[in-house]
Amino acid sequence: MGSVWKRLQRVNKRAAKFQFTVSYHQLTLETTSKWKPNKLSVVWTRRTRRVITDPLPWEPTMKDPLKGVVVWAIPENKEVSVTLFKDSRTQELEDKDWTFVVEDVASTGKKRQLAAAPVNMKKYASIESTQSQLKISLRPTSKKIVGATLECTLSCVFLREGKATDEDMQSMASLMSVNNNGDIATLEDFDEEDEFEEISQQQSLKEVLDLTTQIDLLTNSISESEFASTPMSGK
C-alpha cells in the first residue's frame, strides 16, 4: 500500500538522478573510560540500502587514550545513485536524507551502532559535477561514546532528468521499504542500556506523520490541474 501512495504522490512531478561518491579519509571517535571499540566501519544508509566500508582498527592517540582515529591511508570510495524530486509548487528539489552510521564490529562479528548523522543530499546536488569536503559531527547513539567526527569528500555527478513516474527514475529499494525501519539498526546492534525504545517510538511517529503528509499531498494534487514541466535548474 505504501508503494502505491509513493507513486501517486509523484504524479506531475519532475525528478533528477545523481551519482554520489563518498571518499572516506578519517574517523575520530571518543569513548568513555569503561570501553573501547574493536574495529569500526561506516555505513551510508537510507532505509534498506546500506553501503558499508571494510572494518578498520581504532587506534588511540598518544595525547588522549580515550580519543582514537581510523585513518584510510588510501581513501575508500563508495557510490550511491539518488533520485531527487522537484516540488511542483516551488520548482525546487525536495529534501532527501542519507545517514552516515558508525558501527563497531566485534571479534565475534556482532555489530553495534555507535553514532549517526543525516546528510541532506539536496544540498550537494548540482547539474555540474561538484566535489565537497565534509567534516561531519555524528550524534552518539550509545552511552559508550562521547563524540565522533567523520572527514570525507562527497562528489556529485548529474545523470539524467525525467518524469518522477518514469521507470528509470524509480528506486525499487525505496518503494519496497516505505514501512521498513532500515534507517535504525536492529536491536542487537545496541547495548541494553541504550535508548532503543525511545528511538523506535520516534521513528514510528515519523512514519505516521509522513503518511499523513502523503495523503494531504495526494488530496491537493487531485484538486489541482497538471503542472507544466519546466527544465531542471542548477543549485
TrEMBL record:
Top-level taxon of origin: Eukaryota
Domain C2 NT-type: 8-158
UniProt xrefs under InterPro entries: F-actin_Monoox_Mical, NT-C2
Pfam families: NT-C2 (PF10358)
Transmembrane segments: none
Protein name: C2 NT-type domain-containing protein
Organism: Ladona fulva
